[in-house]
Design goal:
This protein is α+β, with helices and mostly antiparallel strands and about 80 residues long. It is built from two helices and five strands. One of its GO terms (molecular function) is transition metal ion binding.
Length: about 80
């Protein structure tokens, strides 16, 4: 499954990221924030307008807001 459909509160591990589907500048920013293969993540919140953007992702002790298109590029496995 992809990170954009992971239920709120469910812990997961990123198993693959489709970097080529992202703008290179955005991909570098996500990597710098720790959103890469092997990272443990959890969806904390979803946007209020239909659950679209942004999606708040917990990575370690930090919460990062990402767009749905970014989360859709990340394959995860539930923990």
């Amino acid at each position: 499954m992809t990170l954009d459909v992971l239920p709120v509160g469910q812990a997961a591990r990123i198993i693959a990221v489709h970097w080529d589907s992202l703008v290179s500048e955005e991909a570098r920013r996500l990597q710098a924030l720790g959103l890469e293969e092997g990272a443990s993540v959890k969806v904390s919140h979803r946007g209020v307008l239909g659950g679209a953007d942004p999606i708040a992702i917990t990575v370690g002790r930090m919460i990062v807001a990402v767009r749905r298109v970014h989360a859709a590029a990340m394959q995860v496995e539930a923990l």
